[in-house]
Design goal:
Radius of gyration: 20 Å
Number of helices: 3
Strand order of the largest sheet: 1-2-3
Helix content: 40-55%
Number of domains: 2
Strand content: 15-25%
Order of helices and strands: EEHEHH
Structural class: alpha+beta
Largest sheet: 3 strands, mixed
Length: about 90
């Protein structure tokens, strides 16, 4: 799902096929429970904002690309030609 527009009491979202059929109903109920107000959630054909998941993946891909350009990575590949860098983590994200 992607956020298209957000106003008090109203959210417009775009979605893909994997969105659960109960998602809007469940989100609406949770928002009502959390805020004590009724929320209207509508589906939009607009593309909307990049999702948090997509943003994290884009950042990860950029970091992987940058690391693969370093001398250290090239030396690892010389020593281990079949190696493949598939993930990165910050030291404090254990």
């Amino acid at each position: 799902m992607r956020l298209v527009k957000f106003d008090q009491g109203k959210i417009d979202i775009s979605f893909n096929e994997s969105l659960s059929k109960d998602f809007i109903k469940n989100l609406s109920l949770k928002l009502n429970e959390w805020t004590g107000k009724r929320w209207m959630i509508t589906l939009s054909k607009a593309e909307g904002e990049t999702s948090i998941y997509e943003t994290k993946n884009q950042l990860k891909e950029e970091i992987l690309k940058d690391i693969k350009q370093t001398e250290a990575y090239k030396k690892v590949l010389e020593a281990f030609p079949d190696a493949e860098l598939i993930d990165v983590q910050e030291e404090n994200q254990k």
